[in-house]
Amino acid sequence: MKDWAFPSLAFLVFMYGTFFVILYIYDYKNSSVSVFSDVNTSQPNERDIDNFLREISNSLK
Q: Is the dihedral of CA 17, 18, 24, 27 positive or negative?
């Protein structure tokens, strides 16, 4: 009887963990938030930085 108790318990713990990993992956894939959705819009371009620095230098003069 002891021969089947530990393997059965280990299998149940493994299946329990696998269920939550699959649930996490499913929720991650179906989320509406994209990791790279705003890459181009969140980074200021060179002209904006140059204009900002020019305005700061003009205000310090």
A: negative
Side-chain half-sphere CA neighbours of 36 within 13 A: 0
Please state, in angstroms and rounded to a whole number, the distance separating the CA atoms of residues 28 and 21.
10
What's the pLDDT tens digit per position in 2-61?
688 889 999 999 999 999 998 888 877 776 665 555 555 555 566 777 888 888 888 887
Give CA 32 to chain center in angstroms: 12
Residue located via tokens 């009887």: 1
End-to-end CA distance of the chain: 88
